[in-house]
Predict the 3D structure of the following.
Amino acid sequence: MRIITWNCNQSFKKKCDLILSFVPDIIVIQESEKFEQVDLDRLKRRPTQYFWCGDKVKKGISVFNFSITHTLTELECDLTNNNRWVLPFKLEGDTFNFNLFAVWAMNHRGGNSVLDKVRPIYRTFQGFSNLLSHPTVIVGDFNNHTFWDNEFKTHLGSFSDILSMFREYQIHSSYHEYNQLQFGAENQHTLSFRKNLNAPYHIDYCFCSKTLLDNLKSIVIEKREEWIKSSDHVPLIMDL
């Protein structure tokens, strides 16, 4: 199963062929406009399922399922400011069965007030703790890294706090596990801040339960210089 996450920097309709060329099963697209039925019909590969959520029709989070052997079922979620935007699903099929969380973290780096910091994401996954004990994949743009932990000296909910919570459920970053790297030692990055190749950050992730990491075939971060015209982010491509 191939799962891709990419913050497309808006106007995904004009860029979708770039991602479809990878023949994905599931794609999670941040900053995507809402696709209408006519838009889905025009795609070179028509999804079997499509989900979207956002405040503005031109900028939200899209989830496309192209698999013919696996289905996504939306799980109940209170999409308040605390959960913007974390979309929970149950994926079921012939080969895999796991919970899938599609993430576009709206912390202060994602547009929310400084007072919110990253705590909403921490609180969100605390609320999903009953699901995290089952096989889980969490993919998306977290707008965060341990690099910024010092911003939260007096707040519970730093990125390291999130990682610690995930580790309690044996959920780990597929990129870091596959490459045997600690956070902060990344040699590939997912964001060129303001499209500046000299301002790299690693803020997009594919997290997986240990049981799923045992089936990890590869995790690829595309080259920033090859995607800079399309977005400030690059796709992460995970094969299970």
About this structure: The helical segments are 16-20, 37-42, 119-127, 129-132, 159-168, 174-179, 210-213, 224-227. The longest strand covers residues 49-56.
